[in-house]
Amino acid sequence: MTESPTPESGSPASPAGGAEPTVETAPASRARGWTIGAIAAVVIGVGAALAVALWPDAEGPVPAATPSATASAENVDSIAAPSATPEPEDPYAYLGEAVATTRGADITAYAEAGGGDVVATMGPWSYYGLPTTLMALEEAEVEGVRWLHVSLPIQPNGSTGWIRADEVDVTSTDVQVRIYLDVHELDVLVNGEQVFTTIVAVGAPESPTPTGVYSVTDPVDFQANPTGVFGAYALGTSAFSEAVASFWDGPPQVAMHGTNQPELLGQDVSNGCIRMSSEAVLELAALVDLGTPVIIEAERPEV
C-alpha cells in the first residue's frame, strides 16, 4: 500500500539576500487528492481493525472494508446463528379433537367432503347397543358446512368416510390410548402426558393384533362375573381381527379386556385382543369414553 505524500509543516529557509521566497502552492486538484487519500487511509485502517475483531480466527489476509462488508458485519450474529432443529410433529395430534355421536338416526358416510358416493351407512346403535360414536381423523369445510373424516367401525380395518358435522353431536376428548405390541405395554395419555401404563398380552403369531388407528366403541361391564374370560370389564374397539372370522358367533371385534389368566400377561397369546389384569382394565375404563382414540403400534418409538 502506498501512502499519499504529506507536505512539510514549516516555511522553507529564506535565501541569502533576504529575497522574498517564492512558495509554490499545490494545485487544488492535488490538494484534494491528498485529502481524499488521507481519509481513505483512515477508513481502510478502521475497516481492517473491525474485520480482525469480528473474525479473529480467519486465515489469510483480512479484506479491506467496504460498505457492503460493513453491513454484513453488523448482522453477523443473525447470519451465523444456527437454526434450531424442529421438534417432530405428532402424527396423532388431531385425534380426539372431534368425536361424532349419533342423534338417534343413521349416519351416512361419503367418499369425500361435500358428498359424492356413499361408502357406508351406520345405524344409530353399535353391536352391543351403544350409541354409534365415530372418531374424526381430520376435518374440512365445504361451502360453509363442516365435514368430518371419520374412522368407520367396519371391516376392513382402516375404512373411513366423510360425514356432516351438523347431523351428529360433536364433542372432544384429550385422552388417547396407545398400545405397543413389541413391549406388551398399554399407555393412557391425557393432553400428551402419560398418566397410566400397564402390561398386556397381545395377539398370537397366527392371530396378531392389528396395528392402526381405532377408537373405543363398546364398553361392557362384566363385574358381575369378574372371573370370566373377559375379567371385570371389556372395551370394544373399531378394530377387527384379520385372521379370525368371528368371536363367539359375533364379529371378530378386537377389545381391551381383563383376563382370568394373568400369568399369560406380557406374551403373544390372544386371538387379537388386548388382555390385562382386571384391576388394570377397571382403571382404564375409568379414564376413557366412547370415541377415545386407540393407537396400536408394532413398536414403542424411541424417545
According to CATH, the fold-level topology of the largest domain is: L,D-transpeptidase catalytic domain-like
CATH superfamily of the largest domain: L,D-transpeptidase catalytic domain-like
Rg over C-alpha atoms, rounded to the nearest angstrom: 39 Å
Largest sheet: 8 strands, mixed
Order of helices and strands: HHHEEEEEEEEEEEEEEEEHE
- Number of DSSP-assigned strands: 17
Major sheet: arrangement of strands: 10-9-8-17-12-13-14-16
| CATH class division of the largest domain | Mainly Beta
Mean pLDDT equals 81
> Strand-residue fraction?
25-35%
Terminal CA distance: 60 Å
> How many domains make up the coordinates?
3
Weakly predicted, low-confidence segments: 1-81
The CATH architecture name of the largest domain reads Beta Barrel
Could you say which structural class the secondary elements and strand pairing correspond to? alpha+beta
Number of helices: 4
Shape descriptor reads globular
Instruction: Kindly state the percentage of residues in helix.
Output: 10-25%
